Amino acid sequence: CETGAYPSRYSPHLNPVETIWRRVKGFLMPRRHYGSVEELREAVVAAMERLREGLGQGVLQNLCIGT
Known about the structure:
IS630 family transposase; mainly alpha; 57% helix; elongated; RNaseH_sf; single chain
């Protein structure tokens, strides 16, 4: 994704990706331990799908993580 602008890493509230990751972590937090990297990956993918349904695909595409 090329936007030409980079948000400050010292201002996470200005970076929309931080909001997405905060929500993904919220979906994953009830279960803090995963038996394997594959289990964790599957949980992250499932969380992203739930976000896609909740936020609309346009938001995720604008963040360069949608398909």
